[in-house]
Amino acid sequence: METSERTHTLPVLPLTTGVVLPQMVVTLALETGEARAAADAALAGDRRVLLVPRTERGYARVGTLAHIEDAGDLPSGIRALVVRGLQRAVIGAGVAGQGPGLWVEAELVDETASVSARAGELAREYRAVIENILEHRGARQVAESLRGITDPAAMADTAGYSPDLSFERKVEVLATLDVEQRLELVLAWARETLADLTLKERIRSDVADGMEKTQREFLLRQQLSAIRKELGEDGEESATDEFRRRLDEVELPDDVRGAVEREIDRLERTAEQSPEHGWIRTWLDTMFELPWGKRSDDRLDIAQARRILDADHTGLDDVKDRIVEELAVRQRRAQQGVQLVGRGNGLILALVGPPGVGKTSLGESIARALGRKFVRLALGGIRDEAEIRGHRRTYVGAMPGRIARALKEAGTMNPVIVLDEVDKVGSDWRGDPSSALLEVLDPAQNHTFRDHYLEVDLDLSEVLFLATANLADTIPGPLLDRMELVHLDGYTEDEKVAIARHHLLARQLERNGLGPDEVVLTDDALHTIVTDHTREAGVRNLERELGRLLRKAATRISSGDADAPLAVDGADVRTYLGRPRFFFEVPDRTRLPGVATGLAVTGTGGDVLFVEAIAMDGEAGLGITGQLGDVMKESAEIALSYVRSNAGDLGVGRDALARRFHLHVPAGAVPKDGPSAGITMTTALVSLLTGRPVRSSVGMTGEVTLQGRVLPIGGVKQKVLAAHRAGLREVILPERNGPDLDDVPEAVRDAMKFHLVGDVREVLFLALEPADEAAGRAAA
Fold first, then answer.
1. Alpha-carbon span 63 to 177, nearest angstrom
2. How far apart are CA 733 and CA 662, in angstroms?
3. DSSP H helical ranges for 651-707
4. Is beta strand 703-704 parallel, antiparallel or unpaired with respect to 710-711?
5. Weakest mean pLDDT among 54-58, 305-309, 665-669
6. Nearest-angstrom CA–CA distance, 35 and 29
7. φ, ψ at 328 (rounded to 5°)
8. Which residues are known to be catalytic?
9. Residue 53 CA: distances (Å) to CA of 16, 61, 738
10. What share of the chain is helix, strand, coil (3-state, %, to 5)?
11. What is the pLDDT at residue 344?
């Protein structure tokens, strides 16, 4: 109902808990009869209603003209209206309306008349303050929606949505008709709210920063204790408490202790159901199982250490001397009070030699002599770098590398670790383990070795590393450069007999259930076994043959065919071991011209090598067989070229060189390579072409050049020992290899004759039978 242009008669809908301002759209529940009557009256007319807040003193003097957008029932069954605020209205006197409820006359307020330039400035300032408040509360989208409001009156009325204003303040906003005054009012309140928020954040930050770590831990532990009590675990020691107790009991380096403390804190914050909880516990268990700070006291009695080494191994004086030297140095340091810690303090030896010479067992003997723990790592065939450095903790089933596990197994930080078969380490797409060993075996780096799983520095400088290998050639150069090389070239026959007498025989008697006096082997019997049934650099096959003989002897004693003690002499060996497996075959092989006896080094030690040459009709050239490497094939071509270019001086006719030659090196199934067979091939060709056989007592080794020079080679000791085992009495060596004979055992040097040559003509003069003897043998 309208009484004038600005005065209207409207039904009154009282509000008791909220205030509706112009432009607001809200849902109102009609919980009282008065409210329902006002709604019915509005719906029956033009759907306009006057929303008036009801305070403790009665109705407010200003209300909001609103339009009912929708009406319906809530899920609870209460009627509700959706209303939109349109305009402020000042309430006048009550009148009789056209419907139920309370009707009043209300004068509408025109707010556009009170908008000034000052009001625009206040509106912009109010918007900035409200945006700051919303930013603090993380409501950026709401802040962006305010930028679309340009009317100062509408900007001021957004205060009706603020949760910071009380009902009374919102009523005051509704009652303030002047837009400028209203903006000043809400701006002051907004500034108070922003100041309160800023103060609270600063206080909260200051409290968090100022609280001491111990106070926070105390509070957290009290809460954790209360949680355990609720779960019925009050009497049990938690995992973190256990680890902290263990941390207090162990001596750790500072960086390691810091890492362990961080992981314990992480464990405490991690739920037990999380997979990470199990990973952290496993890592902590591993860290506490490592022997931090534990060391064995070195036995510095040099005489006692030498006695232990000699008792465990016969021969191998080079290694024994090196260990005794190390002990002497440590003894001197201890007497002078000098203690080297960290860099360059470890001993790293590489024991290179054929199988069966005692490289691995020597490591255990050294550990016993030093009074240290012993650990053996078999590296043969490993291809994964993580085997050395460990796996990253992010992988399932991750674990430390073999080095860290070896320290854990030893229980000390200074054990003797044998890296067995280091020359047989492989590499593939998983990495190169030999490269990972570079840091382990470098005295300048291994005091800060870092395992990928542990992620802390491990000091390996006090570990005595012994690497074993059959061939030094197959060890990568950078790795070999970091180790001190010691060659174990094998044993003489006398040394083998002594080893069999003092070490192998007692062990095999025990393994075969025989007492020390039930079977007696004479030295002649042991010599026979060594010479006729084994021909190796080491003693592994010798022990097998001893075991075979003793098993047969045990069978005879147990069956009653023989009485104890059973004596076995040299003549009796064939009864137990059968016919000899080896014999002196050089005279038979070199009986005809064209066969020369060379010396070589293989993975099993030194060996005798025969080179055979024949000539045939056909196109001139050279055929080479015997599974030879490129270097050895080149040596054969050099030998033939030398013979062709010096045919006149060697007494070889030109017609004889126009044929085809064939060089063969038995055994054909064994790969062979290297230049040291050069003089042997030259001798075989000259022997063939001159008809002069090679002397059966002579073996030779050396590289030859096109000018006929004889160049030095390696492995002299192993080759000489092989010649001695094969029954040769003379050896031809390059002149520059003369100093290497000092490494040959004195007993072998006394039993053999050595010829040092610089030219291949000297080789031919020493190796070939004289021409008259060769002619006489051919005539016979």
1. 11
2. 25
3. 678-690
4. antiparallel
5. 665-669
6. 9
7. -65, -40
8. 676, 719
9. 6, 9, 120
10. 50, 20, 35
11. 47
d(CA 324, CA 501) in angstroms, rounded, equals 25
In order of 275, 288, 393, the CA distances from 396 in angstroms are 10, 21, 8
Q: Are 634 and 676 in contact (CB under 8 A)?
A: no
Q: Which helix (H) or strand (E) holds 467?
A: strand 464-469
Q: Which of 651, 768, 612, 639 is nearest to 710 (CA)?
A: 639
Collapsing DSSP to helix, strand or coil, 611 comes out as: strand
How many Cβ atoms from other residues are within 10 Å of residue 690's Cβ? 20
Amino acid of residue 547 = G
Phi/psi at 415 (5° precision):
-80, 175
99, 648, 677 from 689: Cα distances, Å: 144, 12, 19
Number of helices (H) and strands (E) in the chain: give both, helices first. 30, 25
Q: What is the pLDDT of residues 659-678, one digit of tens each?
A: 889 999 887 667 888 888 89
What are the DSSP E strand ranges found in 60-169? 62-73, 79-95, 103-108
DSSP letter (8 states) at residue 762 = H
Q: Could you tell me how far CA 119 lies from the centroid of its own chain?
A: 72
Q: Which two tokens stand for residue 409?
A: 């197994």
Q: Which residues contact 630 (CB under 8 A, 6 or more apart)?
A: 673
Q: Provide the 10 A C-beta neighbour count for residue 777.
A: 14
Q: What is d(CA 558, CA 561) in angstroms, rounded to the nearest whole number?
A: 8
Residues 343, 345, 351, CA angle at the centre, nearest 5°?
120
Report the alpha-carbon distance of residue 650 to residue 652 in Å, rounded: 6
For residues 249 and 292, what is the distance between their CA atoms, to the nearest angstrom?
Answer: 11
Max CA distance (Å), the chain: 163
Look up residue 6 and give its DSSP letter: S
Tell me the two tokens of residue 60.
């407010």
Looking at residues 641-667, what average pLDDT do you find? Answer: 85
- 224 within 8 A of 240, measured Cβ to Cβ: no
Q: How would residue 371 be classed by pLDDT, with cut points 50, 70 and 90?
A: confident
Contact 635, 681 (CB under 8 A): yes
User: Mean per-residue pLDDT for 302-314?
Assistant: 84
DSSP-assigned letters across all residues of 83-98? EEEEEEEEEEEEE--S
State the pairing for strand pair 416-420/58-59. Answer: unpaired
Give 358's strand partners: none
**Contact (CB, 8 A) for 696 and 584:** no
Instruction: In whole angstroms, give the CA distance from residue 8 to residue 23.
Output: 20
Q: What are phi and psi of 485, to 5 degrees?
A: -85, 130
Segment 58-83 shows an average pLDDT of 86
CB 549 within 8 A of CB 576: yes
Q: How many CA atoms lie within 13 A of 32 on its CB side?
A: 11
What are the Cα distances from residue 324, in Å, to 195, 306, 461? 81, 7, 19
What is the bridge-based pairing of β-strands 605-616 and 374-378?
unpaired
742: amino acid identity, one letter: D
The three-state (H, E, C) secondary structure of 20-68, written as one string: CCCCCEEEEECCCHHHHHHHHHHHHCCCEEEEEEEECCEECCEEEEEEE
Q: What amino acid occupies position 518?
A: E
Q: Are 546 and 554 in contact (CB under 8 A)?
A: no
Burial 5-16 (b: 16+ CB within 10 A, else e): eeebbbbbbbbe
Output the DSSP codes for 352-416: E--TTSSHHHHHHHHHHHHT--EEEEE-TT---THHHH---TTSTT----HHHHHHHHHTSSS-E
- Identity of residue 202: R
The structure tokens listed for 214 are: 């111990």
Nearest-angstrom CA–CA distance, 135 and 141: 9
327-339 pLDDT, tens digit per residue, is 888 788 777 765 5
- Given a cut of 80, whether residue 347 has pLDDT beyond it is no
Dist. CA 695–CA 590, nearest whole Å: 7
Alpha helices, DSSP H, located in 147-238: 152-157, 167-175, 179-210, 213-231
| 8 A C-beta contact, residue 140 and residue 118 | no
Q: Which residues pair with 698 in a beta bridge?
A: 730
